[in-house]
Amino acid sequence: MNAHTDNIAQYNFAYLDEQTKRMIRRAILKAIAIPGYQVPFASREMPMPYGWGTGGVQVTASVIGTDDVLKVIDQGADDTTNAVSIRAFFQKVANVEVTTHTADATIIQTRHRIPEEPLNAGQVLVYQVPIPEPLRFLEPRETETRKMHALEEYGLMHVKLYEDIAQHGHIATTFAYPVKVEGRYVMDPSPTPKFDNPKMHMSKALQLFGAGREKRIYAVPPYTRVESLDFEDHPFEVQTFDEPCALCGGTDVYLDEVVLDDRGGRMFVCSDTDNCEARRAEGHRGHLSGEEAAT
Amino acid sequence: MTDEPLLRVRSISKFYGNRIGCNDISFDLWPGEVLAVVGESGSGKTTLLNCLSTRLLPTSGTVSYRMRDGAFHDLYRMSEAERRFLMRTDWGFVHQNPSDGLRMTVSAGANVGERLMAVGQRHYGDIRATATDWLGRVEISSDRIDDQPRAFSGGMRQRLQIARNLVTGPRLVFMDEPTGGLDVSVQARLLDLLRGLVHELGLSAIVVTHDLAVARLLSHRMIVMKDGHVVESGLTDRVLDDPQAPYTQLLVSSILQV
Ligand SMILES: [Zn+2]
User: Fold this and answer.
1) Interface with chain A: mutation pick from B106, B124, B130, B167, highest number of A CBs within 10 Å
2) A245 catalytic, yes or no?
3) Hey, CA dihedral for A131, A134, A135, A137, is it positive or negative?
4) At A9, is the pLDDT very low, low, confident or very high (cuts 50, 70, 90)?
5) Closest CA to A43 of A30, A31, A58, A22
6) Three-state DSSP class for residue B162
7) Domain end residue (candidates: A180, A199, A228)
8) Domain co-membership, A71 together with A187
9) Which residues form the ABC transporter domain (chain B) (predicted)?
């Protein structure tokens, strides 16, 4: 870090001081040791407001090293304001290499999505979490929810799903869909769509979750069972889309709706922009890509 | 009735500093028996109820419960996990204020189904069918199953709370002034319903009430409390028709004058 002393004299490497990083790493190690369990940590003030990924940023800052390659996505895209500013932050305070390519990244910080391209051993996926407590919906008392986790009293989670079916005829929860980790702790996967839940199951990558405002860290180590809660007669299902991506023709991917004009024109495109671009580079085409498919 | 009690209470006392909550209370509760604990406010009857139902740690004494396998377990030597499991399976607790015992922001069906889900039922259709059946047994129309208790009258809420407690087939139900906040006409209907269910299911119950009419209608046996002590106990009809303790005589004569 001597090389950068001139530029960032007021900062330690990756912004946080070493003592804080050690404290956060201890919380991360504990979280890895007890998959799905929410570990309290002393969340620090970061140079960005709560709600802008301070939990994820602290986790990333505590695990990142000079050799790491960082990718930051928000809503699946690398070019949104939030993703750009977090990426710029780490370039400035850690001088690390950044990328938009999922396969090239060693650390991927995300708010809403898990990349479509399967992650590999050695990669770390860091989630920015707004509300870590899955039981809060029906039980606002923190003392009680902690007890329910400790005693594995998870009937309430099914009450929530029951209400969904009673009201909508099916489980209408599409985001932050609760999962059970390694058969023990019920966990909120944060605002990711349930489409991504199956990607968490037995993932080769390490998954870390940081909630800054709520001061909680939790983790899913590689090759861990992650099962979405459901009923026998209403089994868990992921969202399906009626049409392929308008740009790359991809199916089995998560699509965002994009409004094209004020006459009701719209199209569905990949939420994972890197994956979409990679597919187009390989010659895949959708019906609105404006180019002929490679033959 | 079997030859062994369901609940054994021995010398239960609860002190708040120097102040007596309840003092040296002992009794047995038998299967299928309803015991009324009667007294005015401040008599210690609610403190006793809370000590028996593990909601409040007594200062001294023991409470043991005969589990389904026939073995007695000291409630205060069980792990918290075991106690909480007992409370949501083999026990019920009916609060005076239904909003203390219900989830006001989820539907009636989910309120009744919660205990089933808590013990691992995972078939939505079965849970809903059981909830529908229980709503019927407490005289709530099945077309209210998706309504929240916020939209229910006081009497309906109390009946819903009862269904929510009874759905797992508990053997012992604690009731704290179960008709307390209700209009007189609604009270009568609820008492009828409770008496029918208790009889039909062979429930044991401990009912705390300040209302001798509730004790008369629901209970087989009663204990009368004053200042944390039991002043009289016995078969309900005997105590009410021929009270021995001066305090009980006063209580009985005061309602007869009305
Ligand atoms: Zn695409």
Assistant:
1) B124
2) yes
3) positive
4) very low
5) A58
6) helix
7) A228
8) yes
9) 7-252
- Position A191 in a domain: yes
Residue A293 falls inside a structural domain: no
Q: What is the ipTM of this complex?
A: 0.91
Q: Among residues A157, A180, A140, A146, which one has the least CA distance to residue A36?
A: A180
Tell whether A191 and A148 lie within a shared domain.
yes
Give the count of domains, chain A.
2
- One-character DSSP codes across B7-71: EEEEEEEEEETTEEEEEEEEEEE-TT-EEEEE--TTSSHHHHHHHHTTSS--SEEEEEEE-TTS-
- Which chain B residues touch A156 with a CB distance below 8 Å? 114, 118
pTM of the model: 0.89
> A56 an active-site residue?
no
Boundary-marking domain end, from A189, A204, A228: A228
Domain identity same for A100 and A149: yes
Beta bridge partners of B8: B28, B64
If you search the block for the tokens 């409390």, which residue do you land on?
B225
Do A274 and A139 belong to one domain? no
Same domain, A200 and A253: no
Contact B117 A232 (CB under 8 A): no
- Reported confidence tier of residue A294, pLDDT bands at 50, 70, 90: very low
Residue A265: predicted pLDDT: 86
Structural domain boundaries, residue A201: 2-228
Burial A43-62 (b: 16+ CB within 10 A, else e): bbebeeeeebbbbbbbbbbb
Query: Is A126 within 8 Å of A208 (Cβ atoms)?
Result: yes
B88 to chain A: which residues are within 8 Å by CB?
155
Position A10 scores a pLDDT of: 54
- One domain, residues A44 and A133: yes
Two structure tokens written together for A185: 């702790």
CA-nearest of A86, A79, A38, A77 to A58 is A86
Tokens representing B156 are 């309906």
Q: Does residue A166 sit at the B interface (CB-CB below 8 Å)? A: yes
Residues of chain B with pLDDT under 50: 1
Whole-angstrom distance, CA of residue B213 vs CA of residue B205: 16
Read off the pLDDT of residues A172-199 as tens digits, 9 standing for 90 and up.
999 999 999 999 999 999 889 999 999 9
Domain membership flag for residue A29: yes
Query: B81 vs chain A: nearest CA distance in angstroms?
Result: 6
Give the 3-state secondary structure of residue A185.
strand
Distance of alpha carbon B66 from alpha carbon B6, whole angstroms: 5
Q: What is the pLDDT of residue A46?
A: 86
Ion ligand 1 residue ranges (Cβ < 5 Å): A 245, 247-248, 250, 270, 276
Please count the other Cβ atoms lying within 10 Å of the Cβ belonging to residue A156. 22
Tell me the chain B residues in contact with residue A231 when contact means C-beta distances shorter than 8 Å. Answer: 122-124
Length of chain A: 295
Tell how strand B204-209 and strand B34-38 pair up.
parallel
